[in-house]
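WARN  no MSA supplied for this record, continuing single-sequence
INFO  ligand: copper (II) ion
INFO  echoing inputs
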Amino acid sequence: MKNTLLYLIFFFLLNLGLNAQTEQSIEGNIDNLPVHEYTLEINEEMVNKAGKDVMGMTINGSIPGPTLEFNEGEYAIIHVKNNMDEETSIHWHGILLPNFYDGVPYLSTPPIEPGKTLKYEFAIKQNGTYWYHSHTMLQEQSGVFGSIVIQSKEKNLEYDKELVLMLSDWTNEKPMDVLRFLKRGTEWYNIKKGTATPLNQVIARGALGAQFDFWRQRMEGADIADIYYPAFLINGQQTMEYPDFKPGEKIRLRIIDGSASTSFWMTFGGETPTLVSADGKDVVPVKKNKTFIGVAETYDFIVTIPQNGKMEFRITAQDGSGTASAYLGRGEIIAAPAVPKPDKIGMMQKMAKMDMKMGAPALKSNPKKDEPYKMKEKWGMQMDKGMKMEGMDHSEMDQIPKAPKKEGMEDMVHPKMGLPIDSMKTKEMDHSKMDHSKMDMKMEPDSIPSDRGDTMKKDDGMQGMELFSEYNYDYLKSPEKTTYDEDVPVNEILLNLTGNMSRYIWSLNGIPLSETDKIKIKGNQVTRITLNNLTMMHHPMHLHGHFFRVINKNGEYSPLKHTVNVPPMQEITIEFYGNEYGDWFFHCHILYHMMGGMARVISYDTPRDPRLKEYPVSNLIQETNEYYTWGMVDAASHMAGMNLVSSNIRNQFNLSAEYGWNQNIEAEFSYEYYLNDWFRVFGGVNLENEIEDSMGQINTTAIAGIRYFTPFMFNLDVRVDSKLRPQIGLSRAITIFPRTVIFGRYEYQADFGWVDDLPQGNNFKKEVTWSTGIEYIVSKNFSLMGSYDNRFGAGGGLSIRF
Ligand SMILES: [Cu+2]
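INFO  complex generated
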């Protein structure tokens, strides 16, 4: 009896120790935990996920890789073998572990070189649904990801069986080529997936004013997702069948969004499921159907297999560009609710009406000067006009008992309204007053025409507003208090999420990863980060090695997460207790945004691990500042032309040449340096025939000047050449129909005879060059074009992009 009691006390203490997630992670199996071993082999091989054989990366022969199953309190040893001819890595997403095994190459862990094996080992001191993926460049997009399931010590949820559902997006292109295509700035992916908003549609919807507002702020429109995917997958397939579940069985679905860049709406057929866990942590169970899952998040639902039929679990890409389904059970399909495609033009109209200041810099002229609070004040939603939220129900499917439906007006305080950042209590109180799930925003009556309110209410294209209301986390409530001791010092950090869509540069506070230092934090204190999204896109932000509180209306019971989706123009505050050591990555989990620079190193400022001596962190940072090269060749009846660009964040090399069959030529090489997003200085060489329609005399001049991408999206070029001839040029392209672009260019050069003698009796000569044309986009790489150029005449032909 005494022995049993001692035994129980011992286990209670052991349990305490293991559950103590505030303890620093320590290397080695110091507690002699039972060892659970896995081997993962990464290969490059042909796969067919979307109707085409392409090279993919598999783990133990499959995409996704195997589910790693553990019990809480085990010691994991995982051997990762790299059979590819490039470096790789594995990061254990959401797992609390010693820094060295976190798996970010060059930051915390050595990369796994070709042919080599790396042994990862760590104590499993948590339970829940997690995942693992490559943290090397864009390898995760190619298939290097899989799930982790950790069974809890005590079973506190009632269900019969469980099923992992790993969600992903698939491209048949090479991921680095996708990124290169995004860097060059193209509408192709939007055209391909039918989410482009050409001018004819904008005009037909009466949204020209909103379009001008976007153009003024140098934006084409309200983009939701950047990339075209031919397929979305659940456990590696577009349709999955699980016929072995029996009617009435309760199944715990462990859902993980392992996509490279796609967030989804999840819907369920049949009985409303119960959400029981988020990001591996139990939450207060809530019945909920339509639920958003951001990239890298995990959600567990308990569903009941229907008595007569098979229930559908459906994912719909956030931009409505595709779906995938899994069916559980047998018989007739019990369909999941369909999620309508978001109305991008409607969103533009709503956003324009809300007077948001978009286009915060992604690239500051002085990155050394970090001024997040000034930036926050200057950009984003202009709240000074005063805003009110109106109680409206956008989500009929939400069945949150915690959020009673209210009718009519309700005064609310929005987190963007400049609340004192140091008074969390005030903040939580304000949050508790508002019901995000039914939130609508409109201007005070004095700033809008009186009929506006009614118009907005009648408008059933409310998706624009749903952007701001449907994405909050208020339905997540921790079963226990998550607050930290009041005596713990708090360190406040403001990070504005910033981006430049046209150059595809992503950053924090207008500073990409390659232009900044680590964010230094201290152990045994709370780091509170306010994430203020100044872009038009969602950013699922992930912190390695920690759980953070996502402050929501549940106050002290705010949930713990490892990934938080920050919707466009919204602000979310997270906080975590510093109990680790080393350097941890904090980044947007849209891989293309991470590679574009939206990342930081959060550092406890502890000495660097000597095992990383040969692996400088600069290698990781450099990945976000690579050069991307693209070009175009025109072959037409009147001329031939080519254009080549190579660009990283600050530097760009341009080579262009045009030759008219009527014997006119112009060729130019220039180097330009970006002082900020839009303004650059350049120098180079220009070559032109001097006498019209004759190659007899070719003039070569040195050129220098400035280039500027103006509001309303014109390219301005102001220069002077080595003959002291000033020149101004302006160009613009507009998509008028879904695949049709018109473009124009005008150049005016003046010659005052300062260097070359002008013809007798003249003291001024001008040269005007202009061209205009139309392009019809046939495919990703081909266009038909027709143009008129005042040097080359009129003609038509083909454009090839490469
Ligand atoms: Cu992002």
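The pocket of copper (II) ion is lined by residues 506, 539, 588, 590, 593, 598 (CB under 6 Å).
INFO  checksum written, moving to next record
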